[in-house]
Amino acid sequence: MREINQRRYVLAGILTAMVFVLGLLLGFVIEGKRVELIQDASDEARVAISSLQLQYAFIDQLSQVGNCAEFMNAFDKNVENLETARIKLSNYQSQATVNRREFDLLYRNYITSQVQYLLLSMKAKKLCDSDVVNVQYFFSKDCKTCDDQSFILTFLKQKFNQRLLIFGFDTSFDKEPLLNLMVRTYNVTSFPTVIIEDNKYAGFMSKDNITSTICGLYEAAPDYCSQ
To answer: What band does 177 get if pLDDT is binned at 50, 70 and 90?
Structure first.
């Protein structure tokens, strides 16, 4: 009887070891797949941002030669692509626990891409007389009203479409010197802060307040302004 019990203990030990080893191997497979998915998201974000930067240089040249029709067409499409890159980058951020440095580099590229397109939009207003309003939105992760401000700006973007360009900057991210320079230049000391063209508005702005401010800057106001 004692010999049978010993065999049972040995068998139970072997089965426990096998289950442990199988679980360990499965964990390696799952983690490997997770790393692969994260790397895919990283690669997509990197290619998207690199493409934006190259296309920026190309359409900037279009503006130099005065081809405003092609310039504005390419500009509108690439601003949409910039938002697509932001979404991909956000998805990557939610998974980027294994490679924070990679995410930081991608986010720095995204910030510089935003500023490039902001400057390009400013140029379009001068060279091509584009009737567009530029909004810069500075926020922080520990800001209590920033989520509400983001919601309002997203809503207005849907209403104004290409006539309203919103460039959002997370000041909690301190790895990009250009962002720090912008914060100092505009003297951003509280959050949220919204800069509509050349005018700075510190603190939360209601939907009606932002709408009336934006609508007052158009030469030909969009339909939403009359609603």
So the answer is: very high
CATH number of 1-127: 1.20.58
Residue 193 backbone phi and psi in degrees, to 5: -130, 130
Q: How confident is the model at residue 27 (pLDDT cuts 50, 70, 90)?
A: very low
204, amino acid identity? F
**CATH architecture of structural domain 131-227:** 3-Layer(aba) Sandwich (3.40)
HEC states along 119-164? HHHHHHHHHCCCCCEEEEEEECCCCCCHHHHHHHHHHHHHHHHHHE
Two tokens, residue 201: 């508005």
CA–CA dist 184, 200 (Å, integer): 13
For residue 18, give both structure tokens: 């096998």
Highest-confidence segment of 10-24, 71-85, 86-100, 106-120: 106-120
How far apart are alpha carbons 221 and 227 in whole angstroms? 11
pLDDT band at 57 (very low <50, low <70, confident <90, very high): confident
Torsion of CA 146, 148, 151, 157, to 10 degrees: -70
101: amino acid identity, one letter: R
